[in-house]
Structure prediction request, 578 residues.
Amino acid sequence: MQLTDEERAMADGAQGAAVAAAMDLLVRYGEALGADRLVETNNVCGANVFGSRHVRLLGRGGADLHDTAFARWSLDSDEDLDIPPVAAYSCQLIGPMDIEHPELQHKDADELQAVLDSEAYSARHGIHLLSTCTPYQVGNVPVRGEHCAWMESSAVVYINSVLGARTNTEGRESTGAAMLTRRIPLYGLHLDEHRLATHLVEVGVEVETVRDWGLLGYFLGEAIAEGIPVIDGIATTPDLVRLKHFGAAAASSGDVELYHVPGVTAEARTVEEALAGRSPAATIRYGAAERRVAYERLNAKGDDRHVDLVMIGCPHATIDQIRQVCTLLDGRKVHTESNLWVFTPRAIREVAERNGYADTLRAAGAHLLSDTCPAIGQFVPPGCRVIATDSAKQAHYLPAIMGLQGWFGTTAECVDAAVNGTWEATAP
Amino acid sequence: MSDHGHLVLHGRPIVGGVAEGEALVTRERISGWGGIDPRTGTVIETRHSLAGVSFAGRVLVFPGAKGSSGWSGMFHMARVNGVAPAAMVFTTMGTKIALGALVTRVPSVTDLDGDPFAAIETGDWVRVDGDAGTVEVRKAAHRLDGAATA
Prediction:
């Protein structure tokens, strides 16, 4: 790879051993990718808050425990490194635990302390504790063309597509290195020529509701794997919630990191502009039959209609989604044999408190959580066997991770399931 | 196919070192976070052809990575837990597999001059040289013959 003088100096240790280790990783990573050089970035989202599961595996060393954790897990270095404050604008993504609800996660005081210490370490190093899978909801809203280095596949596809920012799907180690160096390989979606549509999607059925968008995303992810779809035939303008669920679904069943909805997303006003005159590698039709396939796949892990847990907020819920849950509850209480958990960024939970939604949820016996989710934190209520969710992403991952049954449906069907304790749904 | 069920594919080295083991082949891409259990090296994705199968100590032959950005973190943890694959042979480059192969620290090769899915079956004995970029395959059926004459 070709490095600038500044990058060469970083690699040679001019800014310390930790920055040198970060540059070493980025150079090897860039070479593996076939990248010619690095690109500057001042917008990095990573995941460096650790619970005891990660710390326990480190063994005992001479260095500070959290420096060691950052060196090992975030830079993949075996050296004892003194980690400096981050050089880039850096944010913490979703993490292992909601520190205000350790009891719901069956975490003891030691585990809580491990997470608190890890958060404090990140904060001391200048990593902003947004602690959400949706940084774009709570202040980190990159502009069109901005080179970013983000993890979190649902956020990557959102900022690439809706906002026109530029990031590949990075990992913990590459974002850790980017935080210290303000660099990431110039590869893939950082480059104009890799942002054009590869697949044409002809939508022949109404795609209107949040569930509709989740189903379309889940179908497309599997159908095109890692292409860039341009989606034609969308009649109404989707909002943030719909695109959040769509992208998360497409990045779960497949690898979609960028899509174009002409007239809606940032980089294409028309199908022709998205394709830039090229023929699509494939044209995919999405009609009632394809929608049915996606629905059945998402409900393939459902059998028992007794629902133990309803999960709302994957990706983390907007303030209006929280209000919608309150409205759907309509004064009813969560069934004694079921649970209703709603996940939202910490900053939005604060607004939910001010607006009284948090009180409404508490009064119904529901819980409003932040900083994590059941799939990331790997926790469900005791004895939980069956979950229901309005998120295709959570329906894809949580049953697999926790060995559960899962149902996917509308937000209203999910709230009703929490109230009645049973799954009653109507297929689209 | 070369003589005696033995053939060599040439490709681009991604991670150096030499390792060998029994091949585990899938034509489906693998999801890291939410797709594997890093304590056992087992694929857990519900509808995956390798669901319930462990890649620990085997030469994983697969198209590449898909899914969550936690891919590298999960394979990193599998390595620390001692259940990483012995080596990786893959066909589709991307950020997840590139970073994931690096932090798994096992010999890894891509861009091969032949189709690894045609050349390698689960159970074949495979030697991956991540410095030279070679993948040596000894077919399972012939390996028994070879053992008899060794």
Chain B touches chain A at residues 14-15, 29, 34-35, 44-47, 65-73, 76-77, 80-81, 92-96, 98-103 (CB under 8 Å).
